[in-house]
Amino acid sequence: MRPPRSLVCCLVLLALAAGCSNPFAPKKREGGEQQAPALPATTPEILLDNLSRAFNDRDKDLYETLLDEDFWFTEKNCLGEDVFFNGREEELAFMGGSRDGSRQGIFGRFRTFEYDFDLISRTVELGRDYPDAFPGDPDGHPDEDWVVFRGRTYMLMVDENNDGFRVEQVMNYKLRQGSDGLWRIIRWIDDPLSGGAECGTAAQGKPVAGQITWGEAKGR
């Protein structure tokens, strides 16, 4: 038997009065201010804006949309040797936690995440200049042009106990455009920590207290 129409109306009004939320509505910032959805990354510049938003909002879902399926992160020392590297799934686990929820990622461990990027240069890697040196060469892209942003990146992470660390490092983001027209990060390459003592020379001085590399932060 169908319930009376008056009962249905009452239930609807009660639900509205209880403040039922729309799961598809844009997120709200602290203080109740509604935040517009992130724009699709139809340009490399929009992708950089979305990257900043993903970090500052600790938005693991948005961050996942910014990484290419062939994403690869590398961090080198001053001798040019890789000291830390990971692929896409490892990156998502580092930032957002494990898929099964058994382990928190960086976004979950810190109540504050501040990110800022100061652009140094914007260049284009022409595919004709980057042939495959060998089958499966991760840096070869003879049929694609990649956009490269290089800049100094600042990150500050603070947990509930007011403990944390900061990163100040030159980073390189290489972006490729997918078949859907959207840009994604395919390579993230960190320079050695500026001002550090990786090569053991006195001229480089000592690392700043509380400052570590981004690779070290992800490896903790």
Q: What's a concise summary of this model?
A:
The protein has helices at residues 5-17, 44-56, 60-65, 88-96, 106-109, 214-219, and strands at residues 67-76, 82-87, 112-125, 146-158, 164-177, 183-190. The protein is of the alpha+beta class and 220 residues long. The radius of gyration is 22 Å and the shape is globular.
Walkthrough of the structure:
Helices cover 23% and strands 30% of the residues. It is built from six helices and six strands; from the N terminus they run αααββααββββα. The chain has a six-stranded mixed β-sheet with strand order 2-1-6-5-4-3. The longest helix has 13 residues, at 5-17.
Can you count the beta strands?
6
Count of alpha/pi helices: 6
**What value does the Rg take, in angstroms?**
22 Å
The arrangement of helices and strands along the chain is: HHHEEHHEEEEH
**Largest sheet report:** 6 strands, mixed
Any low-confidence stretches, pLDDT <50, length ≥5? 6-26, 194-198, 200-207
The percentage of residues in β strands lies in 25-35%
Strand order, sheet with most strands: 2-1-6-5-4-3
Shape: globular
Estimate the mean pLDDT confidence: 83
Going by helix content, strand content and strand pairing, the class is alpha+beta
Gap between N and C termini: 60 Å
The helicity comes to 10-25%
